[in-house]
Please model this.
Amino acid sequence: MKILNFLQPDKNNFNTYLYSGVILISLSIFIVFLNSFFNRDLVSFLPGSISFFLPLILGFIGLHLIRIEYSGLRFLDLINKNINTNNFNAFLSLIIVFVVIKSLPPLLSWFILDANIAGDSKDVCTGSGACWTYIKIWFNRFMYGMYPNAEQWRINLSFIALAFLGTIGFFATEKFKKYLTLYYVVVYPVIAFFFIFFFISGGPIFFDFSYGIIAAVISIILGFFIPSKFKMYYFIIVPITLYILLKYVFFYEELIELGKLEALEWVETGAWGGLSLTFIVSFFCLIFCFPIGLFLSLGRRSDFPIIKYFSIGMIEFWRGVPLITVLFMSSVMFPMFLPEDMFIDKLVRVIIAISLFEAAYVAEVIRGGLQALPRGQYDAAKSLGMGYWKMHILVILPQALKLVIPGIANTFLALVKDTPLIFVVGLLEIVGMLNLAKTNPEWLGFAMEGYVFASVLFFIICYAMSKYSYNLEQKYKTER
Amino acid sequence: MSDKIIQITEMNKWFGDFQVLKNINLEVEKNKKIVVCGPSGSGKSTLIRCINRLEEHQQGSIIVDGNELTEDTKDIEKIRAEVGMVFQQFNLFPHLSILDNCTLAPIWVKKMPKKEAEDLALQHLEKVQIADQANKYPGQLSGGQQQRCAIARALCMEPKIMLFDEPTSALDPEMIKEVLDAMVNLAKAGMTMIVVTHEMGFAKEVADEVIFMDEGMIVERAETKEFFANPKSDRTKLFLSQIL
Model:
């Protein structure tokens, strides 16, 4: 056996160092663990300050002892390389571990151990932990706002249908793959709009929706028998004709007169709310702000002075004003400029306002991508005889947009998190509902639970979006 | 062999206050191969970029295949489709595979059916000997392969004229040869070519005529043999003595 030098551990007495080190570290963690979970202080016989720092000192010595380079143990090497490279890092690592152990018990007790979830009134919430009953009781309101309970299946059905239609891309066969972009950019938003406008909103207008669906189904079935040469025209003309026929010739008069069918109950947009409203607002703003931003960014680089200065004006104006004033003006000022008999729904105004606002940001992000492309790409595209639009659609934008995926994702995430601001015009999405519930006299004092709940939901949504954007980046990566 | 495919008369061009091209008069006949050489900054690249209007000239006229280059963009696009160009930095489209790089313009500009365009592209890729790389992306190829792909891409538009803007200047010495070989084959097939290059070996082998430019002017224009054997102006002699 060689001489043990505890100041400089080496491989010669590997096991001795390893075991003594591990024992010291375990001991230190054990002390902190007991202290924080069971409130027992093992080292209370020592003077105050020493007993407080003892775990730190023990762990520190332990980490020093196991700091042996190229030990051959993979796990040990991993630790030494990442969290135990020198004394200072070892010290920081220990502190982090201790803080985590220390903060676990209060968190656990608030979230789970002392929390209440059973029951259906405030009275069950006696513990010191969270009152999840509150969330449970208000869950419907948080999800659907003031939307009538009996009609909530309409929202569910719409969202499920839209989610299903949204996943169609994964099932498309080779033959239909080339239409997917068209589908997602044009058809899908239109379908979504129909669902929300006719179905969730309801009212007599619902009949139009059903006529539209019937017309679409019939024309698709008939479409199989049409030679592909005429399909383009066919799918424009036939559904519209069918729709008009259904509406004005076959059904309209009889239904109105006989009152045989009852329409879906009309739910005004003021009653919409909760998470479903968050989704609706975010969805449409995302869809609208992207193309508007795209055109603004191209416009800002245009050679035509009118287009150029219009774009610059738009971008700078919308970037220069706070969102909250934009929303406020859209609801208070804007109607004053409209003719008296003209009425634009509050939700529509809000969506337009947010879309224009975010479009300015998207425009600048995309412009960054456009500027990052070398001039040679423009030259090459031009030299192949492409005009402005072909050059941009086929060559420039695919590359520029790929470059700015992280930036666009950033803007979109900000947009989703900006939606709570629509409370200023009286629309209550999930955070708005929380604030409402918070001030309910029967349920005072549960703001914390509500905000935690909303944070978790927002985190899930935003994390999913950011993951998706990362996937897109990987998918379109063609560099080496 | 008398029809002039490119006619440049009294052409002047400025970048701001700086006159890059002075009084350029140039006529190129069909199927001729012309090499443009000269020191850097002499306006060679600008000259051939003017021919497909990647740069606008301010005075004089450029007539390509019977069409004068003017403000009218529709005509410009038509002319550009007939004039292929190969760049120093390749300028392949990095988001598309080699095959898609070649078929993009035929499909979208010439409205060629996809199948036909792919056959054509493979044919041209075969000519420059990179047909086996067709499904890779530009980033995965060597510089020489990329430049040959760029040549194939230009050829897929079936141009009447090919312009080369220092096609070998950004390449390793070893890769220069493979690109030059592709260009020699192209020349032998009877393409009208204007090549800006410093490769005097290439000039001697293929060029019908050599143009020497300095300070925005065409200093000398002569048959290839004549040009190298007894250059007339002193400036040309100096240049040749340095480069050869």
Summary: The beta strands of chain A are 428-429. Residues 14-113 of chain A form one domain.
